[in-house]
Amino acid sequence: MALPSTRRSGDTMLTPRPRAFDALYEQMEQLVNAAFAGAPTEMPWVPAADVGETDDAYVIEAELPGLKKNEVDVSLHDRELTITGEVKERESRGLRHRKQRRTGRFEYRVFLPGDIDAERVDANLADGVLTVTVPKSTTEKDRHVEVKD
């Protein structure tokens, strides 16, 4: 007897798992939750993000699907950019078979490598992607100093 073939795409099986496993997974989740009930609050997760550089700016693109602009906070301290927020648990419609979308607090931090102009930082959220543009400083740090008599 041949077993049904399964193809994998990333870490997700394309064939459904038997119903008996659903109960087992639910029991395991309950045991883990009970074991860590007294544990400190959940650590924030880190969204997928790309950091790039143009001639005149650093560009950070973070994936934040389903969020609105008032649910995201962008701050800059010295050269450290921080993106924080929270993805709320959506109300389930009926029996949930699989949960792969992340919920809870998130935090993304990046240190920018060069001098920046913090007064001209721009952030836009469109189509689930937050794009933060941090202009490079136009003030020249290096200069030639004339030696006087």
List the defining traits of the structure above.
3-stranded antiparallel beta sheet, elongated, mainly beta, 4-stranded antiparallel beta sheet, 9 strands, 149 residues, Immunoglobulin-like, 1 helix, single chain, 34% strand
What would you say this structure looks like, in words?
By secondary structure, this protein is mainly β. The protein has a domain at 42-90 and 100-135: Immunoglobulin-like (Sandwich). Helix content is 11%, strand content 34%. The chain is built from one helix and nine strands, in the order ββαβββββββ. The protein has a four-stranded antiparallel sheet, with no helix packed on it. Strands 5-6-7 form a three-stranded antiparallel sheet, with no helix packed on it. The longest helix has 17 residues, at 19-35. The termini are far apart. Mean pLDDT is 81; it is low at 5-13.
Could you state the oligomeric state of the chains shown?
Answer: single chain
The CATH topology of the domain at 42-90 and 100-135 comes to Immunoglobulin-like
What is the structural class?
mainly beta
Task: Report the radius of gyration as a whole number of Å.
Answer: 23 Å
Q: Could you list the spans in which at least 5 consecutive residues all have pLDDT below 50?
A: 5-13
The rough form would be described as elongated
Helix content: 10-25%
Which range does the strand content fall in?
25-35%
CATH architecture of the domain at 42-90 and 100-135, by name, is Sandwich
Protein name: HSP20 family protein
Organism: Actinomadura luteofluorescens
Pfam families: HSP20
Family: Belongs to the small heat shock protein (HSP20) family.
